[in-house]
Amino acid sequence: MTRNKELNQKIRDGRREQILSKALMLFAARGLSATKISDIAKAADISQGLLYHYFESKDEIFVELIKNGFDRLNGACRWLEDQDMTPKEKIVFALVELLKLLEQNEDAARYHLLIAQATASESIPDQARVIIEKENSYPYEAIERIIIEGQKDDLLKKADPKDLALVFWTTINGLAIYKAVHGKSFKAPDVSILTCMFTKG
Amino acid sequence: MTRNKELNQKIRDGRREQILSKALMLFAARGLSATKISDIAKAADISQGLLYHYFESKDEIFVELIKNGFDRLNGACRWLEDQDMTPKEKIVFALVELLKLLEQNEDAARYHLLIAQATASESIPDQARVIIEKENSYPYEAIERIIIEGQKDDLLKKADPKDLALVFWTTINGLAIYKAVHGKSFKAPDVSILTCMFTKG
DNA sequence: GTCTATATCCAGATAGAC
DNA sequence: GTCTATCTGGATATAGAC
């Protein structure tokens, strides 16, 4: 019996994943309120009624995706801070990996766009607002800490660390949005164009 | 009689401006489909019914704003190309002015956000799509031309001009979105952080 | 020109059959 | 678990009074 329960849960989770993945695509392409629940159901190849067996509402799907997005992003930031690299190496590594991710992974750009949209929009579910409020500053702070560290060692440029962290993320965001719009034809710029904003010499 | 007609037209245009200005604010804050026509009417301090004496539909308001946005942006690009400056001066000038504009002019950031939203979204009026299709690449091309020119003179960095133009605008876009979100508390980064991506030495 | 009231439509969510 | 049919609310747009 427990076997079956576990299996059922797996199937259930699989369905949820399938729905979430299609919803991410649609939300990123059209925004929350322009995406119809019927569109999501159609994309996931299930009836609209069935969708409500897996999620209570459109908002719940959206909130779930926002959670996922921050889990990935902030998880990656935490991981980066813990690595055994110099601050300069961390910044360069992060830029290289972020550009690679944007170019290769469709969902990565979509998550960036989703978070950008959600952060920029007043009309999102309250729960999403709460998560954003709580999680949104973390990436900026993490990069700022790394930059401050690197400035001590004289390996990174001596501009205001807050400014540098701001430019770091807004640049990545801008590129993510461009990619989300232009799709597969997007070719990431040479990373050296970006690294020169942060590194000396 | 002609007097009166002209005066009436002026009043009419004034009303339209008032509506457009409020609509810009709301579209930028919430997106097209999450903005209710009743919200726009309320913000413009007129009844919902009256709004339809000035615009046929919500879509028409949106299209008008997209037109305005590109008129400003592409007009500025054309103006920049015509100036009597070295390419390097043009790039630095553009960055300085864009950052100043973002910091000081609320509507400038809103127009950027509106265009970014619209470009990124599949669910916008067909007419808006047509305008975007036609106008969107112009700023990229203008900056690319300036950069190519500057590379000949050896005053600008020798990276791929397409990459540099891409980074130029996605960076500005990223900052505009950040500003549109964080409002008045936004302080633009030091421009030298950005100029170093393009200029030599 | 301006408002209030209303017709119409459509999307989110539910109910109930299989 | 899955579908079809339906309820309900709310938003766009219109009509008609002043």
Your description of this structure?
The structure is a homodimer of 201-residue chains. In chain A, 76% of the residues lie in helices and 0% in strands. In chain A, helix 1 packs across helix 4, helix 4 packs parallel to helix 7 and helix 6 packs across helix 9. The longest helix of chain A has 29 residues. Chain A binds a DNA duplex (18 and 18 nucleotides) through helix 3.
Structure at a glance:
Two copies of one chain form a homodimer. Chain A has ten helices and no strands.
* Strand and helix order of chain A: HHHHHHHHHH
> Could you say which structural class the secondary elements and strand pairing of chain A correspond to?
mainly alpha
Euclidean distance between termini CA atoms of chain A: 65 Å
Q: For the largest interface in this structure, which chains are involved and how many residues does each contribute?
A: A-B, 40 and 40 residues
Oligomer class: homodimer
Morphology of chain A: elongated
In total, how many beta strands of chain A? Answer: 0
The helical percent of chain A reads over 70%
Report the radius of gyration of chain A as a whole number of Å: 19 Å
